[in-house]
Amino acid sequence: MLKKLATMWHQYKYRFVPWIAVNLRNRKLRSVPKGLSDKVITDEVLQECIVRFFTALNSVNECNRLSDINQQILETGKHYSDNMRMNDLSKESNCNKNDNLLLTKFESIVKNEENVDITVLYKRNLKIMKTVLGFSIERTASYLKDGGYGVQVTDGTVPKGAVVALYPGTIYEPFEPIFFQSLHNQFIFRCIDGVYIDGNDRGISKMIYRSSAFRDRLSLESTYDLTWLTQYLVNPMAVGQYVNNQSNEYPANVAYQEFEITNSFPHSLRKYLPNVHYSPYSMESHMSERNLRVVALISLREIQKGEELFSSYFTVVHS
Q1: Is 50 exceeded by the pLDDT of residue 61?
Q2: Which InterPro entries is this protein grouped with (predicted)?
């Protein structure tokens, strides 16, 4: 029992402000000098990188999706005798019956489209990441003793100032309840303004994210990425919650940078964003659309293939 409580405290103390204040001088810190912004790169460069990568994902995946559907249509067309001939539609005066015939014809195509092999998609998108950004990253076993999972550069070289990963999860405003979600949860990120992002892909956190994402879905096309909750991600960047804290042996090579996704962000690319609001609307904006908080991990130096990513969980901004 005591061991379990000690483990829970070890995970929670990084969000307990008095403990942070007392132990700050004993921690390895990232320090931002007075007069400088806590940004490694500009917001414009950050968004341009994300849009460029998401556009490549969308273009390749859409082309492959349409190719698969067209192939299935051709294959179905070869077996009209076993299914339905187009002449059957003209014989039917009842529009509802015609609709049912069409639905029957294309039902298998829709099902096959939804059951695309996610492992193939994941590997294909890793190759797209390498082609567009010059590197790819994956969740792997950490180099740290008892470090669990970490994130490693598995191909290519990460240049300095590159967007390497995104921190996925449910976004909580400072006034929103997160106590029960935070219990035994080491994946909660606290932004500088008190906003929290719960990047846990298990348990109640996973249920809340899925529920919130489906709640905000306004059309057949999703506006949030759900695949980061699984082992195989459509957006390979969405592994930021598994980046471990720096140590004396492994100093930080990436830094967190907060960024706001505005209404100008292309709607067709939002399905690759791994974040969703906990509440359906903002108390400030009411029913109007809100900006979406995104936390990116930016490289502080060139990172070679085989290196693990390490960040600083503590950043001091001098005012």
Answers
A1: yes
A2: SET_dom, SET_dom_sf, SETD9
Query: Are the CB atoms for 226 and 201 separated by under 8 Å?
Result: no
Q: Determine the residue type at 258.
A: E
**Cβ neighbours around 294 below 10 Å, total:** 23
Structural domains of the chain ordered from first start: 137-314 (2.170.270.10)
Mean pLDDT of all residues in the chain? 79
User: According to the 3-state scheme, what is the secondary structure of the chain?
Assistant: CHHHHHHHHHHHHHHCHHHHHHHHHHCCCEEECCCCCCCCCCHHHHHHHHHHHHHHHHHHHHHHHHHHHHHHHHHHHCCCCCCCCCHHHHHCCCHHHHHHHHHHHHHHHHHHHHCCCHHHHHHHHHHHHHHHHCEEEEEEECCCCCCCEEEEEEEECECCCCEEEEECEEEECCCCCCHHHHCCCCCEEECCCCCEEECCCCHHHHHHHHHHHHHCCCCCCCCCCCHHHCCCCCCCCCCHHHCEECCCCCCCCEEEEEEEECCCCCHHHHHHCCEEECCCCECCCECCCCCEEEEEEEECCCECCCCECEECCCEEECC
**Residue of higher predicted confidence among 27 and 263:** 263
Residue-level pLDDT at 313: 76
Q: How much is the pLDDT for 33?
A: 54
pLDDT band at 119; cut points 50, 70, 90: confident
Strands 254-261 and 292-299: antiparallel
CA–CA separation, 126 and 237 (whole Å): 9
Q: Which residue has the higher pLDDT, 6 or 238?
A: 238
Q: pTM (2 decimals)?
A: 0.77
State how far the Cα of 184 lies from the Cα of 194, in Å rounded to an integer.
20
